[in-house]
UniProtKB/TrEMBL annotation, chains A, B:
One Pfam family of this chain: Ald_Xan_dh_C
Domain Aldehyde oxidase/xanthine dehydrogenase a/b hammerhead: 24-128
Ranges in coiled-coil conformation: none
Protein name per its UniProtKB record: Xanthine dehydrogenase family protein molybdopterin-binding subunit
InterPro entries, A to Z: Ald_Oxase/Xan_DH_a/b (IPR000674), Ald_Oxase/Xan_DH_a/b_sf (IPR036856), Ald_Oxase/xanthine_DH-like (IPR016208), AldOxase/xan_DH_MoCoBD1 (IPR008274), AldOxase/xan_DH_MoCoBD2 (IPR046867), AldOxase/xan_DH_Mopterin-bd_sf (IPR037165)
Length: 766, 766
């Protein structure tokens, strides 16, 4: 008699299922896909920041041997794309920023295509340009889009409570202004697409999109192909981080080239192009004004932000949706007002980027919190704890915190890092030129999607074949975040199998069921719930079938280790494969196929931006310890203590990877990364000049997870995709302040900036 | 108000969905697939027909630059394969026929692999060989497999009634012996496979197999990889006709090469190899003895057959299962006995081939029927009609003819071809050296699979996405027979869409649900029913959802032209895509996914080979009109009238294609095709010497379908895959007899054979 003890995969460290294929080079990225007869596409971008196009001469390019098509706006329907629908794929009349597309070529090799692009002659008439929101708002500023003569495509206004009342209740009011800069995703896999029309007019796209179903819908309008004629296949994606959430001009351009040449066309960016012409994190200027009572209670928070929208409108323009959540609900603020102005400039435009505005918002709020704490002479930890939410609250913005680990995160991060003692000690003054400092910051983010469409759900189809091999066809996409592995874990757990018995199919829109896409940290929660429920249905089916076969009540049975076992004793009664074969071949002649569409219990916000937009929320606290060399200006992040309310750990390795990656990305944002845009031009489009954090700069990272067991989460889990990148930069800035007494209102903390600021502070006697 | 009239796709001529991709060259066959790092496999086959292997020297082959592996039996587990499990992939001790595999190479190109194969030195000791079943049964004949010292791996014995009684009731008894020859499939796509182990030990096979799920199971045992670690992807298949129903040695050999080299390996036959080493239709000698009463009633039928099994046992050995159906049940024969002996020889071995023994059985039965008719001085048509079954009968073998169009086929074929008049006229004698003749023959075949496994079912998963695009994931495979199109028709019909709205996914074992495979003319019936039922569930779901939305009773609604309409008036009420989007985005947040496993109402035969093995049976009558040039021996088939009971026509174009293809194959079998095997060696391994019927030899084909509306068939349909090839050769032989008065007992009717036979008949005064 074999006994199989109850065990669980949940919380175990499971290596990512796709890791071996990635480390062996087996994984096929877009760049590895060759279709028969495939041509190579290349885009001519403008070299002007704002200009009228007078003429485009493609004669020489067309005449080049090996060139199959040269297209300009004239050859396309000209339907504008992007979230703001203000950006035609190819520009016919006018260019508005340095990344604007003017013409495109399909040729037999990338080299020929590049040569053809060089042969295209464009005559321009330069127009006056504007490079800051403030300038763009000035009377008489150049108008960038005629539809918006004031250069303002969007404003957002949110409020709750009564600011005047809040002011009256305040003992102290603090006002700060913060300015955030351009950074970009730096995906290892550059942007690209392959477009292929078959002889029946069906368009297959090999695309890195994060939202295959919405991609079909949105592209359809632009390329004039019905959505049901578009198939989206995702090759292995080399990072996305939000950069692949919108449609960008290169995508329809590649499709137009395929249409023009009746050949498959691959269009892949060079690394330089990736820096010049992929989305950025949006630069924002934020002014915060908050009141506090003597006892440390926040009274009101008033925020106004000014967003540099660049020359066109992509998702970057909508980040205020997320920013306002942090303003209104990261801490209790009885009165809150938030006003945003999104302004066109002739700068590059910005898109979605991990954290989606929340890095900027949290940088401002959590820097500001330290100043408020100081104003009431409270320790930063105590001040935050005093204002932190608790489980069960509904915030004035309508967010329902079914679970809320913020206080536990604050406490644990403080304890693990010895924050209170060190903060006091470092502030008391240090000898020598290298000063130590410690700082903290917390975060609030959606933890299970954000209902910005009428559904935020994900579909699953599950089949188990006759050797107990499970195939899970999920709507959700793997973009490197580890969703495949988590989904396999949920399914394997439910069916008493190992993860290697589960194959996750997630890359073909014709096969997988519908899903919104990868955004808003939703995959573990939404796709996980969907897979879990499909697996649970299969489990029920199997136990129901096993019951009569084993002369047992299905409720007394369990699935463990590939067997049907007695729930109480663990006695293995029947191999699962045998049960499935019996069911299929002998008993009922059936196969085990189930499906599920999981819709999270969230709602769309109302016109006032209120409503429980996510079924759950993620919280976290980071403590950063730094060394500031006051002679060189070098800020070294020594250690980060990262504590996250993750609901429940599903894959220990996966969650650690996400947290480490987010911390590193945040450290880069805080200390090194800067896409230098000068008069609309990107000045450092290479990894030599755009400085990512590399191994030597990565601090020690001490990770802890608070498990609040979300009642709606799959096995209690919340999303963790974005959270770890959000609150690291204010923790660092707060630590630098703790070390030096000097506060930084802008990032990144490059040695030059730090040194200059420390010196001028010294001069001004701060 | 838009009115959409009720219309149907059933019976319409629908071009095959995969036709454009095939005619444009878009379709990717096995030969077109390149995997990164792929090597090329090549097999060394023996040049002996029966020999002991003394030594194999692979030194020189291994030393050749570009060679990655050279393997022999020693490097493999040596588990024997094939239906008889008597055939190890690589032979270590002994070769038994000319196609036997001795060693294999994987190299960087096909050329290097071929050169390496030439460098392998094998020492043999020849053994006495035997090339006919009769010789192999003789006392002291060489023993080919030690497990069968009498050289008989299988016998089959069937009987019903009492032959002695039948003899007593007979007025006339006729006995004939027929001998049938080797032919082979001549698939345009030669045999081949690609094997690829990934870094996690998962084996992906790009295989042309007709039975992906059983292939996994059967291979597993041979290659020692668990079935759940095997994924079978079918590229576009260039014809199969049964040749890809078993596992053949090249398949595990390619896998062993991939294992040895840790690289993907492609092994594709040359055309010569395809002739030398792919399965054949099995040669059979049949002796029929039948009795008839004066009134034309058949009394008994006694049959004994001798099968040349070749050196190993593949599916060819089991064709008696099908042959006996024709003996026992094509016409009413109250008493029947059938005895088969399957005999090993040192000839090539045979496999499954469209018709599966029934071409041989029907050739014999229907030649014999004409002789019986003549014996009682009845017209062949009248004689057949007198003995034909009717709808509703259960034959003594247990076959239940829920529908039976045999009489209608006989009548219609006779009427269309003016058979009775012409037969009489031609027999009366003709002037000149070119004689006209007309002949007829009928057939019985399974029309909806054959339950030779415990299930004969097929699974379907169906999803409809938000633009009313339907994906049908079917277990069934497209091997050129048009199943994709028929499945799309059933689904489109049920959902009121066009076939172009339906995508059929049918090539990946990880995605599609279980299916037995393509055999026994089962796909339209079984996979069709499965798809139809899955679509019906989706239809119900959609109408149930539409009802409340439209304030209507779902039963008063219909789906037509992509809309929900009022059943009675056809008034278009709601676009289907809109309904699905509403259901998904607004109402219930659900997606439309359904699944089905359809098991046909057939049973496995008992030990006496009795039982209703198929849910339905196909019938047909062919009339052939020929011209025999008595000076050259050339038989020209002028016209074939092909009438089939197809249950119901689903795709008019598809069914015509199947019937035309079957007739052409049958004409080839009757008049031209012959795999010449001399002392175990294939003498004509090329299309120059193996003469297929080509365009100039194709007769006029007059097709008619009898629609008996099968109660279990999807929309009333039966399978048509094999039937059209079955009864053409006896119709031709009967026509030649009608023209010349000379009967042929062997095929093919080559000019040499015809001339010689006519001359010797003349000499003997026949």
């Amino acid at each position: 008699m074999t006994i199989i003890e109850k065990s669980t995969l949940i919380g175990k460290p499971i290596p990512k299922l796709d890791a071996p294929s990635k480390v062996t080079g087996e994984a096929r990225y877009l760049q590895d896909i060759e279709l028969p007869g495939m041509l190579h596409g290349k885009i001519l971008r403008t070299d002007r920041v704002h200009a009228r196009i007078l003429s485009i001469d493609t004669t020489a390019a067309k005449a080049l041997r090996g060139v199959h098509a040269v297209i300009t706006a004239e050859d396309t329907p000209g339907v504008p794309l992007g979230h703001g629908r203000d950006n035609p794929p190819l520009k016919g009349d006018r260019v508005r920023c340095i990344r604007d597309e003017v013409a495109a070529v399909a040729a037999e090799s990338e080299e020929i295509a590049a040569e053809a692009v060089r042969l295209i002659k464009v005559e321009y008439e330069d127009l006056p340009a504007v490079f800051s929101p403030a300038d763009a708002l000035k009377e008489g500023a150049p108008v960038i889009h005629d539809a918006h003569p004031n250069n303002i495509p969007f404003t957002f206004n949110y409020d709750h409570g009564d600011i005047a009342k809040g002011e009256r209740e305040s003992d102290t009011i603090v006002e700060d202004t913060f300015r955030l800069h351009f950074v970009t995703h730096c995906c290892m896999g550059v942007s690209g697409i392959i477009a292929n029309f078959d002889s029946q007019g069906m368009l297959t796209l090999y695309s890195q999109t994060q939202m295959p179903f919405l991609f079909k819908r949105d592209l359809s309008r632009i390329i004039e192909v019905p959505p049901e004629k578009i198939r989206v296949i995702q090759p292995v994606i080399g990072g996305a981080f939000g950069s692949k959430l919108d449609i960008y001009p290169f995508e329809p351009i590649c499709i137009f080239l395929a249409k023009a040449t009746r050949r498959p066309v691959r269009l892949v960016y060079t690394r330089e192009e990736e820096f010049l012409a992929s989305p950025t994190r949006q630069p924002v200027e934020l002014t915060l004004r908050s009141g506090v009572r003597k006892d440390g209670t926040l009274t009101f928070r008033e925020v106004s932000t000014l967003h540099d929208n660049g020359g066109h409108t992509s998702w970057g323009a909508t980040t205020p949706f997320v920013m306002m959540q942090t303003f209104s609900s990261l801490y209790r603020a009885e009165h809150c007002r938030y006003q945003t102005t999104v302004v066109y400039t002739n700068n590059p435009y910005s898109g979605a980027f991990r954290g989606y505005g929340n890095l900027q918002a949290t940088f401002a709020v959590e820097s500001h919190m330290d100043k408020l704490a100081a104003a009431v002479e409270m320790n930063p930890f105590e001040f935050r704890l005093h204002n932190a939410q608790e489980c069960g609250e509904t915030t004035p913005q309508g967010m329902i915190f079914q679970t809320c680990g913020l206080r536990d995160c604050l406490q644990l991060a403080t304890d693990k890092s010895d924050f209170v003692r060190k903060h006091k000690e470092y502030a008391a003054g240090q000898q020598g030129p290298v000063k130590r400092g410690i700082g903290m910051a917390s975060l609030l983010h959606v933890g299970g999607g954000a209902k910005i469409y009428h559904t935020d759900g994900c579909g699953t189809i599950l089949k188990i074949d006759d050797y107990a091999k499970v195939t899970v066809m999920t709507g959700s996409s793997e973009i490197g975040q580890g969703s495949e592995t988590v989904i396999a874990q949920f399914v394997a757990e439910e069916l008493g199998l190992g993860v290697s018995q589960v194959e996750v199919i997630n890359n073909d829109s014709e096969i997988r069921p519908w899903d919104v896409g990868v955004h808003a940290s939703r995959t573990t929660f939404v796709a996980g719930n969907s897979a879990l429920r499909a697996a649970r249905k299969a489990r029920q089916k199997l136990l129901q079938a096993a019951g009569p076969k084993l002369d047992a009540n299905p409720e007394d049975l369990d699935l463990r280790g590939g067997h049907v076992v007695r729930e109480d004793t663990g006695e293995a009664l029947l191999e699962l494969g045998k049960l499935i074969r019996a069911l299929h071949f002998r008993d009922k002649h059936e196969i085990v196929v189930t499906s599920e569409y999981y819709e999270p219990p969230s709602v769309m916000q109302d016109k006032e931006f209120k409503g429980n937009v996510s079924p759950t929320y993620a919280f976290g606290t980071h403590v950063a310890e730094v060394e500031v060399d006051t002679q060189t200006g070098i800020v070294r992040v020594v250690k980060v203590t990262a504590v996250h309310d993750v609901g429940r750990v599903i894959n220990k390795l996966g969650i650690e990877g996400q947290i480490e990656g987010g911390v590193v990305m945040g450290v880069g944002y805080a200390t090194r990364e800067n896409l230098v845009v000068d008069a609309g031009r990107v000045m450092n489009p290479s990894f030599r000049d755009y400085k990512l954090v590399t191994a030597p700069e990565i601090p020690e990272i001490d990770i802890a997870c608070v498990e609040t067991m979300d009642p709606y989460g799959p096995a209690g889990a919340k999303g963790i995709g974005e959270a770890p990148s959000i609150c690291i930069s204010p923790a660092i800035v707060n630590a630098v302040h703790n070390a030096t007494g000097v506060r930084f209102y802008e990032l990144p903390l490059t040695p030059e900036k730090v040194l200059r600021t420390l010196q001028s502070a010294q001069e001004s006697g701060e």
